[in-house]
Design brief:
The protein has about 600 residues and is of the alpha/beta class. The protein has 13 helices and 24 strands. Helix 5 runs parallel beside helix 8. It binds beta-D-glucopyranose.
């Protein structure tokens, strides 16, 4: 859990397109050349050009092969053939019937694009996996005739030629929508729904979308009898029922996870970056890139509890830990995040949101700018690019209020700024919405695209119920003013574990405010933040005293009481009493 311590333009095309004008001819020999027997009769009638484009993410790629009829007569029925030199393996295709025999790939026309008039094009697309080198094929043939029309295609290389989409299997889109949540249904996780429905009163919220947490390697196949990644994607296709649907995954398994706390330490040791890559990110990327799921809008929350810790919780700070020093020195948070982005970003229907802490963590000047710059560094690590980032998320699994209506950061009492109150303590922000919008601008300055969007986890920041103030605090001092009027009822802003008095917040909603792509319920309400006492487990989870209601605190929470609920199970496990309290204190009320 994260702790302590009007968009107008369409996004740039996020796929890398490299053009190869196929200079295919009978002279092409060597690896990759198609053996073509050119019969004089066929050659007389048929002439073609092929334009081959790839979008490659290192272990796989999609290709669009544009066939142009450069002859004078229509081609009635076509089969394209070409060879790969490497171990490229077909996983699926569209815009034609794709097959592979050894190194030779064949694409037969679909019914709807069978006839190619003179000058017309067809552009089938395929998806492949590979290892090693992904050399482009050197020659192509249509109906056994080498495509050597000798003219460059008239289409400009960056604009895909117009094609009629196949009716059933849409290709992955070459450019992403600006806000994947806009106009989309939101996925309901059947496993969370069942847990919510088993609770008295739970059916009032059980149809709400919550995120799916990929919090260990086993989550990809499914923990025990639980649903795995592909089970969720298959279920998402059902729920989509042909309409746009967004499904959000939390990618959460970095080496040395959660270096500043104990409750969500994970399975990978600080130096296990190779396992993170090959056993965690690679299989996730392979599943998400499956063309079967091309119609879904797949969003990801990339690695909470990580990058901000390298700014705020290293030993040069009073709150530093040796574990965070290790992660800063070995670079494995930065490399892990970069690798995840590099693998997931090129997939045409995957949208990455990086964790950006929350206002009670990064809202101070010392933390704000350096974190934005570090995020930009991570987004360029390990072959990633800034454009692989759709946006950022704040407040994941935290309790920061969305909006404080009864005071603002610009208020003062008797000439003293609220920034000097004990609660605000020189922070620049008093709530998540103003923080997310302010941080968005700083991220753009750091180099991210001007159309990035923010997400806010509103699952548990409602702070409703009977203790909710109904007006501003008394203007006796900045402290009476802030404490009397603030909706966030925590004992200290740095408290983060199973907070007593919290309630469900805004329901998930697309484009609720300027610069905000969505409010989401990322932390599934009812799942614990950490055990209130030591509980042995095989998940790598430790016991963090911030989850113990008798704990009197440390430097990160101003040596205050932890404010957590008692009798809590380990993080991620179902905590019925908390679920009930969240419903009771929901705001908006249920
Ligand atoms: C835990 C994860 C869990 C997630 C969602 C985190 O605190 O460490 O294991 O999946 O919360 O409840």
């Amino acid at each position: 859990m994260s702790r302590e311590i009007t968009r107008t333009t369409a996004p740039p095309a996020r796929r890398r397109r490299t053009a190869l004008l196929a200079a295919c001819s009978l002279l092409a020999t060597g690896a990759g050349a198609v053996a073509v027997m050119q019969t004089p009769a066929a050659a007389a009638a048929l002439a073609c050009n092929v334009d081959y484009q790839v979008s490659d993410w290192g272990s796989g790629f999609t290709t669009t092969v544009t066939i142009k009829n450069t002859g004078t007569a229509a081609i009635d029925g076509w089969t394209l053939t070409y060879d790969y030199a490497g171990n490229q393996k077909l996983s699926g295709g569209w815009g034609g019937v794709w097959s592979q025999s050894g190194k030779t790939v064949s694409v037969k026309n679909a019914d709807w694009n069978k006839t190619l008039a003179a000058g017309a094009t067809a552009a089938p697309g395929g998806q492949f996996t590979y290892s090693g080198t992904n050399a482009k094929p050197v020659s192509f043939a249509v109906n056994g005739v080498a495509c050597n029309g000798g003219t460059t295609p008239t289409d400009p290389p960056t604009t895909p030629p117009p094609t009629t989409p196949p009716p059933t299997t849409p290709p992955p889109t070459g450019s992403k929508v600006d806000n994947p949540f806009q106009g989309a249904k939101l996925y309901v996780n059947p496993e969370w729904k069942a847990k919510a429905e088993a609770e008295p009163g739970g059916s009032r919220i059980s149809d709400t979308s919550t995120s799916v947490w990929l919090d260990r390697i086993a989550a990809i196949e499914g923990v025990g009898t639980g649903m795995g990644l592909r089970d969720h994607l298959d279920e998402a296709l059902k729920q989509a029922n042909g309409e746009p649907l967004a499904i959000n995954f939390v990618v959460y398994n970095l080496p040395g996870r959660d270096c500043a706390a104990l409750a969500s330490n994970g399975e990978l040791k600080a130096d296990e970056l190779p396992r993170y890559k090959s056993e965690f990110i690679d299989p996730i990327a392979a599943a998400l890139a499956d063309p079967k799921y091309a119609s879904l809008r797949i969003t990801t929350v990339i690695e909470i509890d990580s990058l901000p810790n390298l700014v705020t919780n290293i030993s040069s700070r009073p709150t530093g830990t040796p574990q965070c020093d290790v992660m800063k020195q070995n670079g494995n948070y930065v490399k892990g995040v970069g690798y995840a982005l590099a693998k997931l970003g090129p997939i045409g229907n995957v949208y990455n949101y990086i964790d950006a802490g929350h206002h009670g963590w990064l809202g101070w000047d010392d933390n704000f700018g350096p974190s934005a710059d570090l995020f930009a560094e991570a987004a360029k690590a390990e072959g990633s690019k800034l454009e692989y980032v759709t946006g950022f998320i704040t407040n994941t699994a935290n309790y920061g209020i969305l909006k404080e209506p009864f005071y603002t950061i610009n208020d003062s009492v008797n000439g003293t700024s609220v920034r000097q109150s004990k609660w605000v303590d020189w922070n620049r922000y008093v709530d998540e919405l103003s923080y997310a919008q302010g941080f968005r601008q700083r991220l753009v300055q750091a180099g991210f695209a001007s159309n990035i969007g923010m997400l806010i986890d509103t699952s548990r920041n409602g702070w409703g119920g009977t203790a909710r103030p109904t007006g501003p605090g008394a203007q006796t001092s900045v402290d009476t003013y802030v404490n009397g009027g603030r909706l966030d009822r925590r004992i200290h802003l740095g408290n983060w574990c199973n907070q007593a008095g919290a309630g469900l917040g805004e329901r998930p909603k697309a484009a609720p405010e300027a610069g905000i792509d969505a409010y989401l319920w990322v932390k599934p309400p009812g799942e614990s933040d950490g055990a209130s006492k030591e509980i042995p487990n095989d998940e790598g989870k430790g016991f963090d005293r911030m989850c113990d209601p008798t704990y009197t605190g440390n430097a990160r929470n101003g040596n205050s009481m932890s404010g957590s609920l008692g009798d809590a199970p380990i993080s991620g496990h179902w905590f019925s009493a908390q679920f009930q309290e969240l419903m009771k204190n929901a705001h908006p009320a249920l």
